[in-house]
Amino acid sequence: MTDDQADNALQQARILMQALPHMLRYDDAIVVVKYGGHAMGDDKLARDFARDMVLLEQAGVNPVVVHGGGPQIAVMLAKLGIKSEFEGGLRVTDKATMEIVEMVLAGSINKQIVGFINAEGGRAIGLCGKDGRMVAAQKIKRSDAAGNPIDYGFAGDVAKVDTTVLASVLEKELIPVLAPVALGADGETYNVNADTFAGAIAGALGAKRLVFLTDVAGVLDQDGQLIKELRVCDIPGLVADGVITGGMIPKVETCMNAIERGVEGVVILDGKLPHAVLIELLTDHGAGTLITR
Prior knowledge:
Elements: H1 3-25, E1 30-35, H2 43-58, E2 62-67, H3 70-79, E3 85-87, E4 90-92, H4 95-119, E5 124-128, E6 135-139, E7 142-143, E8 149-150, E9 155-161, H5 164-171, E10 175-179, E11 181-184, E12 189-192, H6 194-205, E13 209-214, E14 229-231, H7 235-240, H8 248-260, E15 265-270, H9 276-282, E16 289-292
Parallel strand pairs: 1-2, 1-13, 2-10, 5-10, 6-11, 9-12, 13-15, 14-16
Antiparallel strand pairs: 3-4, 6-9, 7-8, 11-12, 15-16
Helix pairs in contact: 2-4, 3-4, 6-8
């Protein structure tokens, strides 16, 4: 063995030694990862993500992947000449739009992620909320500033989660990849916000971690610096002070709801950072903002 080889072997051993306590901490634990943002559009990052999910599973973790697909839906709607409107940050989903949403989310995107994971040696299975009545949806009911109800069409919230199918899949050491499409009591298919869907799944499973891969590093302070740890009780004050604003508000609200449902901790981190999930879970450094009770 040359000196360079010895140095490389020593470095690898140190990495493994650092990772071991974290691997033991997450042994047989459930980690729900919401995969979205621009990382989904980068082929290399997508393959790195797939490799990371396989490594977690082989290390004794039970990863559950929930994915979005807003940009891909927008592209397909534009190709088909279907106009899409938004109200309060939510897509107004008519019947024609819902058909495209389901095709893109539960079809092309879901199967692409499954394919990437399986190509890296994993055993992934693609599902959506409709499968085995996993997620029951209800029509979103919200009003505008004047108190008038907004009709979001087939945009839905999570009414109930049944973990029967997921428990069976995880027991067989498969990696479930979930599209946020669910069935309502009226028999209609609803498009559920992927963050909301992931939070509900994580809560129902009693996940040790819920990880949101986003397009930002996490929650930033007034100087633009990453806040590495937050408690639920800190969040209302940060929103009132204008530190947490815009699209980060509904995301941290989802984090708070997930923790109330029983998730031990929620992490918001940058999905464009290579191997972000591994850095967060299996190193001493962390990669984003950890929110706990």
